[in-house]
Each structure stands twice: as C-alpha cells, then as structure tokens.
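User: Hello, beginner here. Can you help me understand these amino acid letters and fold codes? It all follows right here:
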Amino acid sequence: MHAFRDDALGEHDATGLAAAIRRGEVGAAEAARDAAERVRAVEERLHAVQAHAERPEPGPVTGLLAGVPAFVKDNTDYRGLPTGHGSAAFTPRPARRHAAFTRQFLSSGVTVLGKTRLPEFGFSPSTEYEDAEPVRNPWNTAHSAGGSSGGSAALVAAGAVPIAHANDGGGSIRIPAACCGLVGLKPSRGRVVPSAQGRQLPLDIVSDGIVSRSVRDSAAFLAAAERHWRNPKMPPLGLVEGPSERRLRVGFLLDSPTGVTSDAATRAAVTETAARLERLGHAVQPVGIAVDPRFTDDFLTYWGFLSFLLGTTGRTLGADFDRHRMDGLSRGLRATYLENWRNTPGVLRRLRRTKEAYAAAFRGLDLILSPVLAHPAPRLGHLAPSVPYPALVERILAYVAFTPIDNVVGTPSLSLPVGATEDGLPVGVMFAGRPGAERTLLELAFELEADRPFRRVQDL
C-alpha cells in the first residue's frame, strides 16, 4: 500500500520537493498539509505514527531541505511532544526542549509533523508490541517494517513523507531500510551531533540519521547536518552530488563474521551486486572478518546492560515508571545482564578491540559489501516481544548478524535496496567503510542507483 498521489508532494524525493518549493512551484505549507493527508490515508493500516505536532514547526528557509515534511523518531526529544521510547512502562511528559539532534535535523529546513513509533527502547529489530498494533510494512502489511526505526521507514516507503529521522544502535537505520526498500546510512560515530545519553555510556553505539527513498536525499541530509555542526575530528564531507570516477577495491562476504548463514534471496542480492561492481570497473574480492568468537555474546551482554540502566533509572523518564511493565524482550535482556554483570570489564575490553579486527579486514580495501540481514523481513509475530525470551533472542541473533559490528567500531554503513524476494519483498545489501568514509559510500551508492534505479512500492 502507498500514499502517492497527484498533490504537492507528487513523486518527489526530499531534494526534488525542496527545489520545487525554492522555485515557488509548491508552498511549504501546502506540502505539509498534503503530507499530513497522506499520513492519515495510510496510518489506519501502517500504525507508524506515535504523535502529531499540533503546530508543525518549519525549519529555516535557507536549509537544503527547506519545507520538506518529516518526522522525528519517538526516542528523541521534540519540544512540546512526549518522548515515549515505545514503552508502556511509564507515562511520558511533553519535552521542554529539543534534543541536540532535533535542532540539527531542523536546521536542514524540514517541517516536523510529529513522531514515529519504535519498539520498546529500540531493542528489537521489529517494531512490535505486546499489547498494541505493530508497525506494518507497506510492501506487504503482513510483514515487519523492521526496527527500531520502523515507523519512520514505513512512512517514507509508503510515500507519506520523503524522509524521516532514524537512529541506529545495532542496525536500527539499516534494518528498516532493508525491510522497506529504502536508503539507510548510519553515519560514523561523531559525524552528527552526539546525544547526551550516548556521551555518558562506556561505549556509544548509537548514531542518528535518516531513512530516504534516494541517495541524494541521504547526501543532502548529511551536508545540511554538517552546516549546523561539524566535528573537527572528522574529515569534511560537503554535499556529495554524484558518483566518482575513482574505481574502488571492495571486499565481500555472504555469511556473518559471527557464523550466521544468509538465505538464498539475500546471497543472490549480494552476489549480483558484486557482479555489477565488477562490470562497472571496481575490483571485488572475498574478505573475512576475524572478530572475537565471543562478539555476539558480548554485544548481547552490552545490550542487556542498556536495558538494566533503563530499568534502574527509568523514573527520570516518568514518575510512574515500573520496570515490571517493560516488555518481554527488555526484561529478558536485563536478566541476561544480571547473570553476567561481573563480566562487564571484559565485555567492554573485547568490544573495543573489535576495531583492530575490522581494520585488518579493510587492509587493501576501500569498502566491504555484505548482507544487511540474514533473511528478508519476517512475518509479523516472528519477532514479537510476546515470544518467550530464549526463542526470541535466538531468532533475533539469526536475523541481525551483520549490522552490530559497525556500531561497536563506529564505522559508517549503508543499506541499499537492490534486491527482491520471489514474492516482491525488498532485500538490502550493505556497504561499510572506514571511519569518515561517508563520501565514498555515497558516491558508490549514486553509481549503483544510476545503473539500476531502485524498485518503488507505487509500481507494484
């Protein structure tokens, strides 16, 4: 299902809509109104919106994306709207001020229409709940839209808005992008303004960004974000506008460094992409990543540590916070950590050392190509938090086996919608680069998009 129609948004991506607004062909207020109507048209099926802004706040008219309607994910403060984190464990209060990233996002010129849904505290790769409707995939509403930025991905894929905020602590930009046929770039650690919460953690694994339908929108967002704030420790990026003449050395792998085997549709997407790269003149070779055999258990322990912290400090979110009302996944992660908390120093030490193995894999290479996920978007219910915790974690680890390493190392990583299953579900492939390599990722993505335009849900 989709919301594309003959209105102010048309089939524009964010860059095209912003250009039409600058030329005076479309008004920003008209674009916001029509986007709101599109959201209403699909929300009854998709269940992607957490809250609507009563008075949408336009960004500066000088921004690269001035006038483009968008949404903020509901784990990030937006002044006047409650931040619920997808949890039923507390009653959220309206935020008093914008989060630092919200200000950076608004600096691009977007008009925020509201907030999108996520699974509780962003822990799950599927936006599902114990006692509420799940977020549904516009390509097939019986399937997951991914997580944790599932609400944002569903709205963008359905054409309700051109872009939406997403963030990624273990794959939460790239996973829903792959599920919903979108472009999803997780920036390098430090590329965008860090969150206050992330700065307090022993290992900051979360990066903010967007999901989009075109490479140029992801490039425009990063350029706009850099105009607002640039980390002097990162190489400047600027506006990337197309492919490069430079030919790259790309390593590829089909199965996870942690030993998880990808399914046939996913392997085909990666193999076909590798063949396309060779046809376009790039050098492609198999690569291995020798991560510590304990990486999966260590990452799961750290994920449990985050759940433990939330359960312990939850009253800062709401006076009525009750950790016993957290969902089954959150409670299970917390229990996992409590069983292993004495190992925390070793877990952190090994996770930090992952960058050494990753750097070794990149020797002689510019990028690494892999699956995003071990299999396409599952049917709703497969990853629901009501599934008993041992079975649920087993399913998650057999699904999310490629993305977490870039969160731990802090490297940029990009999901592109290049494949499809026999029944039409999107299949994404992932490119990862060294820290600060967003330009290289975007230039290659432009080339692949021009070589074979991405499938569109409105063409089904």
Remarks:
- The chain has one domain: 14-459.
- The radius of gyration is 20 Å.
- The CA atoms of residues 285 and 296 lie 26 Å apart.
